[in-house]
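Progress against Task 2.4 (sequence-to-structure conversion) is shown through the following example record, which the project officer requested during the mid-term review.
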Amino acid sequence: MHALEKILASHAGVDTLQTGEILNCNIDIAGANDLYLQSVYSFYEMGGEQVTNPDNIVFFMDHYSPASSKKQAQNQKEFREFATKQGIEKLMDIDEGVCHQVLVDKGLSKPGTIIVITDSHTTMHGAFGAFSTGVGATDHAIIMKTGKLWFRVPKIVKIELNGKLAKGVYAKDIILYVIGKLGADYAVYKAVEFSGSLISELSMSERLSICNMTTEMGAKASYIQPDKVTLDYLANVGVTDFTVYETDEGYEYEEVVTFDVSDIQPTIAVPFSVDNVDELEAYIGTQINQAFLGTCTGGRIEDLEIAAKILSGKKVKKGTRMLVVPASKKVLQEAIKKGYMSALVEAGATFVTPGCAACLGTHQGILTDGEACVSSASRNFPGRMGATHAKIYLASPAVVAASAIEGKLADPRKYMEV
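Structure tokens generated for the chain above:
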């Protein structure tokens, strides 16, 4: 059995399972964000009166942070009222940040657990060795009523990442490169495990970025086997209550794909698909109107650090907007403490409330027709950040920062120390 299968089996109370089998599993964390008030309505429509495990339920006010319309404000109001009525204490309000990073900050993302959230990028928590996936509002309501949810045991593929990263190449470049090679439909209802010699050299932040974007290849879940980096991170934040599962020797994967990351150069996904990937060099000089740094994919402290170092002592190009959206309150506080916020503000960047912001395409930095944005977020579909005919280029935080300086897509390596 694979470690992910062992997690599912343990939560379903069975000893063995088969690929494709349906299991009804106990859920450790079930989160809903402020897009999904239907979860509350569905709970009552199903005859729900009292949430089964309120300690396992988390509400996040992150997509509309803060509310920018009456409808958004009403959603958040009803979530708060429901949480109070049901004794749900884990209500992360508009000051906390993006759901995924908040779980990490609060020590709720950990090995051996099943984590579901009404957000497709829940695959991110596979970086900690969890089985984590996105669900809909009705699924979340079922969990609130019963404490359980069914899953079909997915096929599992392994992606081996070997070699050494070149200067100026980061986790975002790696996952864009992989998606570009394999395609947006490669892993539909499959789980993706990352392994190989590179993994031990990646920080938790980089692992989170890679696992986060497996959604963009259709993955149901992602996985990285917990190692010293994982365990040291958890120990530093005081998390000790978890179970690490190991994949049995001889387990047969659906497929094993190997990449030499030494070949990867700064990479970019161009409009209008995440798997429409090319080397950045082919698009150097493309004009942009906005540089967007942040979200659950590229808004952690390491991302802000990279941008601050590149922009320190420089200025955002006149006529170009740079938005910085920390993934969470904790990230923002650390950025202030370390001086990254000052460096970015002095360079001409505008800080936005921790949360999803323009990545959602409803507020805080949306684009109009004819504009172009380079973004550290996860998607570049038509209309993703507002206008249907705006263009979004996905790249690493380093590329975002360098491009902000020049007002056009730029190679960050020229701004980095050798």
